[in-house]
Amino acid sequence: MQVRDRMSAHPVTIEPESSALSALGIMQYHRLRHLPVTDANGRLVGILAERDLLLAASRYLHAGMEVSEVMSRDVFKVKPETPIEEAALLMANHSIGSLPVVDDDGLIVGIITESDMFRALAEVVSPGRTVEQR
Questions:
Q1: Which residues have C-beta within 8 Å of that of residue 124, sequence separation ≥ 6?
Q2: 3-state DSSP call for residue 9?
Q3: pTM for this prediction
Q4: Which of 81, 98, 113, 133 has its CA 20 to 30 A from that of 30?
Q5: Cβ pair 24, 102 in contact under 8 A
Q6: pLDDT of 15-42, one tens digit each?
């Protein structure tokens, strides 16, 4: 099984110049915990985790922050053809909740999350049963 078999294609993204407040609104609206940050061409430049955003907001409550001030720039990422086991190990070994999926040009094509991994595991251990998505 490959990442492409389990990733969410066409993920919601945000640009670095966007406000942190709008990023939080997007995350809440779409029920996301991770938001890939892309440049105007769709290339991955970072990732924004909800917990990092909430922590920054608690410290700088009245400051108008941009996504670029809060996002992680050193992002672990995978390609669609990466074996899912390799992606799971990468996530577990580095304690991260999601991996952006990029093509050979660095354009984001998907995202794979802990929830995607849990669903894949549940379907392997309980063949014939499917896990409902929220």
A1: none
A2: strand
A3: 0.84
A4: 81
A5: no
A6: 999 988 889 899 999 999 999 999 999 9
